[in-house]
Amino acid sequence: MSRPSDGSTVEDPRAALRQRPTMSEITGRYERMQQEVRDRLAAELGLGDWGSEGAPVRSACVRHPEVADAEQRNLVRWSRPGIPDEQWPEAVRIAGTVAAEHGFSELEVITDRAGDHKVAIRDGFGGRLHFGTAARTVLAVRTGCHLVVEP
Predict the structure, then answer these.
(1) Is CATH 3.30.360.10 the classification given to domain 13-147?
(2) Is the per-residue pLDDT at 95 higher than 80?
(3) d(Cα 126, Cα 130) in Å, to the nearest integer?
(4) How far is it, in rounded angstroms, from Cα 43 to Cα 41?
(5) What is the Cα–Cα distance from 34 to 121, expressed in whole angstroms?
(6) CB within 8 A of 150, min separation 6: which ones?
(7) Where do the record's region annotations for Disordered lie (predicted)?
(8) pLDDT at residue 1 above 60?
(9) pTM, whole model, 2 decimals?
(10) What confidence tens digit (pLDDT) does each residue in 29-59 have?
């Protein structure tokens, strides 16, 4: 810890990030979570036909720009045809249950109207699972800040 000139205490951001899983560890966890959500939606609601879109996208950590070997990532996005309104509540329950098993607990309803639904579920590392449906259903994950190299 360092002390700024005003006498307050500032935690070293790199030290705080060392307490988290590395980027490779967290992306592995999140990819498994996405697969489990897709598998459960297919098995329990018949919502298969998922396809991947794009490639992972890396970006600097907004919260810790001074840590050069830390980044955030948008993982591969998954989509399928839209989910009918009558299945949406159960689909959210399934996604929320799987996400909770991976440390995601804070659910935010972003949109909830006929034919257009979106939720975000957050974890303690700043990761966000986005799950929404309209004409297409999208399942996407953005990590929080994690070190790219082993601490």
Answers:
(1) no
(2) yes
(3) 13
(4) 6
(5) 13
(6) 22
(7) 1-29
(8) no
(9) 0.88
(10) 999 999 999 999 999 999 999 999 989 999 9
